[in-house]
Amino acid sequence: METNLKILVIGTGYVGLITALGLAEVGHDITATDIDEGKISRLKKCEPIIFEEGLEELLHKHKNNIKYKIFSSDIIADYDVIFICVGTPQNYDGSTNLSYLDAVSHQIAKGMKDDKYVLIVNKSTVPPKTARRVENIIKSNKQNALFDVASNPEFLKEGTAINDFLNPDRIVVGADNPDAFDIMEKIYKPFVNKGFSLYKTDVTSAELIKYASNVFLATKITFVNELSHLCEQIGADITKVTQGMGLDPRIGDKFLNAGPGYGGSCFPKDTLSLSNFAKQEGVTTNLIDAVISVNSSHVLSLSYKTKQFFARIWDGHDTNKHIAVLGLSFKAGTDDVRDSVALRIIPILLDAGYTITAYDPAAMDNARSILPNVTMASSIEEALDGKDGILLLTEWDEFKHINWSSIKPKLRYPAIMDMRNIYDRDHLKGLGYNIWSIGRSEV
Ligand code: UGA
Fold it and tell me: Is 85 an annotated catalytic residue?
């Protein structure tokens, strides 16, 4: 890459680390920083600090290209562009906690040189008008500062983060000044040269695009989940309904899989945050509020259905109510259990007197301390052995390829609750299983 831009990335969480590596991959001069010394020392040794496919290889590949440093205001003056990628967690009232972002903005102001222009790019997920907030902090701490604040939201998904960054659906850049756009165009030129589109807009609209995209996807999922209850009631099949809907290009066939409800570090937080932000602005968000509440009650309803299903299977028989839960992460491909549905359904079942052994290919370490009364198995076979039933919560590939025929003699009751529709019901029925699949009739 021929630009001489020196780029500083602040924060090495999901967004920051992948941004640093992705921009290094296309040839930029990158320094990645964090206040967490432990993270920086591990990154220097190329140790992956998050669970992400291909991360370790990329860390090694760019071992000598990326400089890893502890963040401090002293280093700010060396850089032309600063990407803010710090965490923006949720406050108790659902609003977004901007304290890390505020702290970093103060540090940037402290470290800026009087006569040197710097472009500050916000990549953290934040409510609209946050760029203005950063701008105000800087202006009030450094009167003559030469700078712009741009918004460049990130759309990567956990589990496919590197691929998503390097092959983006779109690159959104919000800025209010041509100089800022020029710099962002230079940074993303290698992507645009490959045919990826760069969408330019004003800062506040760019900020809203990020929230609107996540909340719209959460709405799509919630619509399908609500419909799944109706399908069960009337004997329709949600997988066929969504396939049929998806043939309409205006609807599209993505993100229409019924499941136990959306989870993770983004959708639950962003739906709440957008609703909270809109209310602060005096705007009601009935639809978004309904999405939040339907997603929440969906989990309760599925917990109830689980208890009903197993009660029917066990009715009149001897049972230990000891089931295997397959999957703890909020989706496949990640070890992340933040706002995972498993963490809501499992306690309800424990309260109902169930004993639970769980297995997850990646998330057991993260779930252990949150679910101290759950036994973690060391393999799928161990999880299933001798159980009175199976509850599938996460769509990991490993779970798709279980040999149900050879497992069956080891189960006390061949009964499966499939909350991701990954199993062929007729095949399992042929093997003598009772199977309940979300949004489809029980067989
Ligand atoms: C989401 C967005 O998809 C990314 O574009 C965005 O950048 C990211 O949030 C973010 O804001 O950082 P992620 O949280 O990694 O990415 O997970 P998704 O793959 O979107 O899944 C979210 C939830 O929806 C999961 O619980 C998943 O199981 C569920 N889901 C997804 C369904 O139940 N059905 C579907 O059809 C798709």
Answer: no
